[in-house]
Amino acid sequence: MDKPIKKLLILGCGYVGSTLAQVCLQQGIIVKATVRSQDAARKLREQGIDAVINDNPAELDKSWLVDCGAVLDSIPLNYDEKRKPFQTQDNWVGKLVNHMPQLKWAGYLSATSVYADSGGDWIDETSTHFSDNPRGVERRKAEQAWLNSITTAEVFRLAGIYGDARNIVSKLKAGDYKTVAWQPAHYSNRIHVDDIVAALLAAMQKPKANRIINLSDDEPCPHVDYVCALADIVGAPKPIVLTPEEAEAQMSTAYLSFFQDNKRISNQRLHHLLPQLKYPSFRMAAPHLKE
What we know:
Blueprint: E1 7-11, H1 15-26, E2 30-35, H2 38-46, E3 50-53, H3 62-65, E4 70-73, H4 89-98, E5 105-111, E6 122-123, H5 134-149, E7 153-158, E8 160-162, H6 169-173, E9 178-180, E10 187-188, E11 190-192, H7 193-205, E12 212-215, E13 221-222, H8 223-234, E14 240-242, H9 244-250, H10 253-260, E15 264-265, H11 268-273, H12 282-285
Parallel strand pairs: 1-2, 1-4, 2-3, 4-5, 5-7, 6-15, 7-12, 8-11, 9-14
Antiparallel strand pairs: 10-13
Helix pairs in contact: 1-7, 4-5
């Protein structure tokens, strides 16, 4: 990029967005943000972020957008009462980009849920084995909306996000945490918010047209192994390990689906951008986590 980013717009400034915003402010980057509640806007303003309440980016004031050199879309998927997504990116991305004449970089925070279950095999960004789950399908549509809107758009497919104030430490310490021992083992993937932020900043500084990157750490592992090891590290009671049959009897279908996915996310492309992760494994992050 010829000139460094001076102003960043974060759409849907939640957990990842607000963490990124604080680092950007420390680096002298002006941050603007959209949220959906007055309370969220107030908290961001108190931190020095120019926040507005908005649920349709196409309706943002043009004068407010005109000087933004970068945009990060962190808006979560939303569904109406019929479970159909509304205000999806293909409804407004083009209009938004047209209102940002200084835009040099765009990033979309997608999710590794776009990939179908691989039976535990490794999945990289070249995979075309996509999920037919509605959320995965909508994520893919949002990715394409951004990739088709501007050549400097990039997509980041995030594994399970954790960090301070977003982890299961308190649930583990409360006792009676239940997990499932699948046979064969089902792999899950995760990444610390600090490494997500570092990757986003690196991408902004060294952009690559239409790049897609998996953001996941170096240690995919079965969820049962993850929670048992985490409990041991933080001094929490050992989780209750259920058989698949016991889980089906005791857990809701929606909750059980969280444990059923089985894939290992390759982060080799991430390491080309960010050679060393701050937390390549949850084992390194666990002693420092704040509940």
